[in-house]
UniProtKB/TrEMBL annotation:
Organism: Pseudomonas flexibilis
Gene3D superfamilies: Aldehyde Dehydrogenase, Chain A, domain 1 (3.40.605.10), Aldehyde Dehydrogenase, Chain A, domain 2 (3.40.309.10)
GO molecular function, one term: methylmalonate-semialdehyde dehydrogenase (acylating, NAD) activity
Listed CDD domains: ALDH_F6_MMSDH
Full protein name: methylmalonate-semialdehyde dehydrogenase (CoA acylating)
Entry's Gene Ontology BP terms: L-valine catabolic process; thymine catabolic process
Alphabetic keyword roster: NAD, Oxidoreductase
A matching Pfam family: Aldedh
Transmembrane domains' residue ranges: none
PANTHER family documented for this protein: MALONATE-SEMIALDEHYDE DEHYDROGENASE, METHYLMALONATE-SEMIALDEHYDE DEHYDROGENASE [ACYLATING], MITOCHONDRIAL
Enzyme class: oxidoreductase
Entry's family note: Belongs to the aldehyde dehydrogenase family.
Amino acid sequence: MPQPSVIPTVKLLIGGKLVESSTSHWRDVVNPATQEVLARVPFATEAEMNAAVASAKEAFKTWRKTPIGARARIFLKYQQLIREHMRELAAILTAEQGKTLPDAEGDVFRGLEVVEHAAGIGNLQLGELANNVAGGVDTYTLQQPLGVCAGITPFNFPAMIPLWMFPMAIATGNTFVLKPSEQDPMVTMRLAELALEAGVPPGVLNVIHGGADAVNLICDHPDIKAVSFVGSTRVGTHVYNRASQAGKRVQCMMGAKNHGIVLPDAHKEQTLNNLVGAAFGAAGQRCMALSVVILVGEAQGWLPELVAKARTLKVNAGVEGGTDVGPVVSRAALERIGALIERGIGEGAELVLDGRQPQVAGYPQGNFIAPTIFSGVTATMDIYREEIFGPVLCVMQAASLDEAIALINANPNGNGTALFTRSGAAARHFQEEIDVGQVGINVPIPVPAPMFSFSGSRASKLGDLGPYGKQAVQFYTQTKTVTQRWFDENEVGGAVNTTITLK
């Protein structure tokens, strides 16, 4: 496909202005369906990154004192602008990331829900009051912003996950430095431009680009008070250890291996549709993808129908109508997924549906892999232990619900899980006994709505608080407790009190 004569450059956002980087280190943003170079993204210089932090620090002086209602109104405007530009945002996202246009709109919409939640900050950032806790003494709490906060986001949700972070941080009175994925930063930058249009003041939101050097600067910079991260376990562990040792608040949402248990009493057609959609949607590039299915008892006979259902999915470029599975994000991702499939075959798993090297008319250079299914998978295999992050489903068997629960609880990750059944007793037992942070009952991807909080657990999460919802208000604010007594002007002073009690 012919390349444009002049390839556009992705800008930095510093102090409310889009800035052309002076770096000598650039990376191409590549359309994964065509290999067309869409833009060049800079790896910002140290001076540019420090300027972004300095801008955020300066803006915090006034932003923290901005009335809460004024902050809320900016996000009311922002959600309106996102709605008005939904198709544009989805088109940019599909071009650089690869997911289908309907899924790209869903990516934007799930982030939009958090923006709407941020617009209600006046009801979320409330303190507490205890009147007359001792003689004439009141105690109350203030939830005050921390200062400059930062976010590091992954390639797979370049709209939703940035919107999980900076709206809640800014709405609570902080300023923010965002580092989106260098693989697909264009939709993130468009969202940043719309935030400025909505009224976010200069310096309150800044965007830098880069790789490991940018991540480490965020972890180390003394003026950054909190870091939010979503991405791989390897990088997330590094971020958590390095940033927490630097005295920062840190939350890291990391890798996963999400299981779905199918009991024989489940509604077959609905369950099969849910399994296939959750396993292969977004080409499996979701941290909440349902990548393992455990068929219990007689449900083990459903495997041929599961394979047949997966065969019906259409693999094509995300811009093409009717597409179910778009390309994976890069050549490197495609090669890694292919290597893991080869490893699974070598380990003895049965490849009952081979999706490698599909022929996609009109897109011979695309990073395509069709739905792929292994059966006979065991807990010792690499295809079970590693997060494949592609359209590959591992099918396991169990004799009972308790055996399936034990298998899931033995896995180190705890992002999400689901049970498919018509039994209320089984559902209750499952939700009580499963050691996973997010549980779905006949819901394959149980990501909670923004009034709750993302609650992955165990090896899928480092830090105590989730990136949005009520927990985000706690994460982005410092609770200050005030205990006060006002004396009546006519009151005569009493005796000296040398005890710890208030009287």
